[in-house]
Amino acid sequence: MDRSAKRSTSLPSSRKALHGGTALEEQDSKSLVDIQISNESPASARTVSNNLIPYSHAHVHTTSGRRDIQDRSLAIPLPVRPDSQALRRMSTQLDDADISYIKVWELDQAGRGFIALKDADRLPLVLLKTRSSITPKQRRSLRRALHQNLVGLYGFQCSEASITLIYRLELLAVSLACVTNSPGVQFSESDAATVCKEVLLGLDYIHSELEIIHGAIDYTNILLNIDGEIKIANIGDSMIQGIDLGSRTLDLQGTGTLIANLIDPTTRITGEPTLCDDVARNISSMTSDFIKKSRGDTTAKSLLKHNFLSIATPTGPWSLKPQVTNALPFSLKFGRHWDSRSQDIGGGYI
């Protein structure tokens, strides 16, 4: 079979002079070139259509696998499929060794951390958390993680003795442990369902995209920010631990315990998701069933379909704003200014 039978190119009318040696007209940004390649006949050809990249980097996918385009005389953009492996490698380049951070405030936000100014344009604020040194394998497991229900992990810095994880700073964010222990703060079943729905959305991302478990879903690792948004904290620690999905029931059991903690204060003392008799008699059967289902063999996607979540705020967690604003007076007093001029190792307090 000759070459023309294997490949046919349909060009816009503006490019008809291409093989005549005349200059091409400026390409319309909306013009695409469809290249059909087949191992047998034009009838079985596949049309490659995706984002445009320069021709010198073009690849196509055929029925027999990936093949470079041999004829590079066509100096025009070709629509190709993006290389997912290359994109993934780019997303894992998190080491910010050449960037400086200026610590300004120490605080407890689901664990000890520092608010810091990044030495970059507009001095963005970040949250730094330092951990003991990790192995090369653990370092390779770290990757950028950004999701609406996570405290986003931007990167890390390594030294011989420690590693510093660089997180997105959630301003005026309070742990659910602090919120639930603040005077006058109460969570209804609807509030608990709203919290649970947001946590499950975050867990679905962790399980499906990061392919690990969090391993510490409780009210000390869940933040509620000033906009009422729920954020799962310390995802970097989860990546370092690298617990596989075989143990994901730990995360889902944590959501059941979390609901019990929110609507029944006595469970915060016992540490068990067993509601006291008075609370158990007054909650709906949907809530009881959800807590029971969370202890079984299930997934985040399955629990997101449970009827209990139908009583969550349908348009987002904004309904949780009263809880966080009531807790702020008891949380803002925590933290200390960090003075890098101190003689203490790495800084000090004033």
Automatic annotation (TrEMBL):
GO molecular function: ATP binding; protein kinase activity
Keywords: ATP-binding, Nucleotide-binding
Keyword Nucleotide-binding: yes
Xref: InterPro entries: Kinase-like_dom_sf, PAK3-like, Prot_kinase_dom
Domain Protein kinase intervals: 101-350
Source organism superkingdom: Eukaryota
Transmembrane segments: none
Region ranges (Disordered): 1-26
PROSITE patterns: PROTEIN_KINASE_DOM
Family statement: Belongs to the protein kinase superfamily. STE Ser/Thr protein kinase family. STE20 subfamily.
Entry protein name: Protein kinase domain-containing protein
Source organism of this protein record: Aspergillus welwitschiae
